[in-house]
Design brief:
single chain, alpha+beta, Metallo-beta-lactamase, Chain A, 3 domains, seven-stranded mixed β-sheet, globular, Quinoprotein relay system zinc metallohydrolase 2, SoxH-rel_PQQ_2, hydrolase activity, hydrolase, RibonucZ/Hydroxyglut_hydro
């Protein structure tokens, strides 16, 4: 299969440069790909500020993301249980897509444009149906910054009602930090895209013979947590409301997160897809690790506050009993303990 690309450079004088996918022109032959480009010349406006090295052209399809079919028509890419780096190129979160008879919905798009491009290729290798929707489960950059190739192809970007504000407030910092972590070449062309539709409560989308239930949650992992339930297979894409192996990261409300987990537990599911780990967890057993960690975080934090411990002292002891059960524990637990202590010490 062939795809259309254009080579873009940070600066034309000394690079770095990277081929950027022009989605929607895939074809079985180079001639057909070139004909598609000629029939519908792609806009390069989204690459303003970068140097264009030559005209768009067609090349053999580059490497797709690896995905697993966890249920009929439901595919998941499992990110590495690591912090973003130049070695892993930011491929550290779970992404997925669901295929209906009329269209495809993508759930999360990764940390950079290259991730979204590679996910697009994985879809194109399995169906030629249009990608009609992209659902972003929250604003963290490892889930949200690869959406541009889908937006450029006409997909509707959907998220929590709080998502546009959350992205706007953090966008500059996210773009700067991710570029530093994974390197300018791999990050080239990455940008946040506008959210086309926001959801206050729930929304159903029909992919053709397949209805997805989208649900916005109260403040929990973040202030913009959003889930996708495939009603056909009872598969829930939980985003970072559920972590597996990778220690949870608290960027919202501990009390709120525990309340949301209690609501999730009432759902009738077959499996869930966590934001990290998995890639598919049994139900309801997949909740056990999350509940155990958050309960330890709450119990130890309340005990430290009751004993009059200072924040710096408390952070050293809170949830330490959980250390053996989670990867990246030392990177995240002190932040979680700080957030929990700050939240709970001001309760009435």
């Amino acid at each position: 299969m062939f795809e259309a690309v254009v080579s873009l450079c940070l600066t034309l004088s000394d690079g770095p440069c990277r081929d950027q996918l022009l989605s929607g022109h895939e074809a079985m032959t180079r001639e057909a790909c070139i004909a598609s480009l000629a029939a519908s010349a792609p806009s390069l406006g989204s690459f303003d500020g970068l140097g264009v090295l030559g005209d768009p052209t067609c090349k053999p399809m580059a490497e797709p993301l690896e995905v697993a079919e966890v249920a009929a028509g439901v595919f998941v890419h499992m990110g590495l249980i690591e912090e973003p780096s130049k070695t892993n190129r930011g491929d550290v979160s779970n992404l997925g897509f669901i295929i209906g008879t009329h269209g495809v919905a993508v759930i999360d798009t990764g940390a950079a444009r290259w991730t979204g491009e590679a996910l697009w290729r994985a879809i194109r290798l399995r169906t030629d149906r249009p990608v009609t929707h992209v659902v972003l489960t929250h604003m963290h950059p490892d889930h949200a910054l690869g959406a541009a190739p889908f937006s450029e192809a006409g997909a509707q970007i959907i998220g929590h009602a709080n998502l546009p504000r959350a992205l706007s407030d953090r966008q500059a910092n996210y773009l700067e930090s991710l570029e530093r972590l994974i390197g300018s070449e791999q990050f080239l062309g990455t940008q946040a895209v506008p959210i086309d539709q926001v959801v206050q409560d729930r929304l159903d989308i029909d992919l053709g013979g397949r209805v997805l239930e989208l649900r916005a949650w109260p403040v929990a992992h973040t202030a913009a947590d959003f889930t996708v339930l495939d009603q056909n297979t009872k598969t829930l894409f939980a985003g970072d409301l559920i972590f597996h192996r990778h220690i949870p990261a608290l960027d919202g409300s501990l009390n709120g997160w525990q309340a949301v987990l209690a609501e999730l537990q009432k759902m009738e599911l077959t499996r869930l897809i966590p934001g990290h780990g998995g890639p598919a967890l049994d139900w309801p057993g997949g909740l056990a690790g999350m509940k155990s960690y958050l309960n330890a975080l709450e119990t130890d934090t309340r005990a430290a506050i009751s004993e009059g411990a200072r924040l710096g002292e408390a952070v050293e002891i809170i949830a330490q009993s959980q250390a053996a059960h989670w990867e990246l524990f030392d990177a995240y637990n002190p932040r979680n303990a700080t957030a929990a202590f700050t939240e709970l010490e001001w309760e009435d």
